[in-house]
């Protein structure tokens, strides 16, 4: 039984040792990989937490100016006509 669990967890132990070695020898690459793994996890974890704390989506920003509900008057007096 001990050899079965050893065979199952051996890749995890080797991966941990490799990551530990990389953290000491090349910390920039190691922490870049850590941040790369955290990003997709946050996509799944953060929205329910925000909802739990009462966050609501803000109102949409208007993309156009509302047209007034009156007839349009022609512009006069600016000498734009040739």
From TrEMBL:
Keyword Transmembrane helix applies: yes
Region named Disordered: 63-82
Regions that span the bilayer: 28-49
Keyword set, alphabetical order: Membrane, Transmembrane, Transmembrane helix
UniProt-recorded name of the protein: NADH-ubiquinone oxidoreductase 9.5 kDa subunit
Signal peptide coordinates: none
Keyword ATP-binding (UniProt): no
């Amino acid at each position: 039984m001990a050899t079965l669990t050893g065979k199952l967890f051996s890749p995890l132990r080797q991966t941990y040792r490799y990551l530990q070695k990389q953290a000491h020898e090349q910390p920039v690459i190691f922490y870049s990989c850590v941040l790369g793994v955290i990003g997709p996890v946050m996509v799944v974890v953060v929205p329910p937490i925000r909802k739990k704390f009462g966050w609501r989506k803000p109102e949409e920003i208007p993309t156009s100016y509302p047209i007034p509900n009156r007839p349009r008057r022609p512009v006069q007096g600016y000498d734009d006509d040739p």
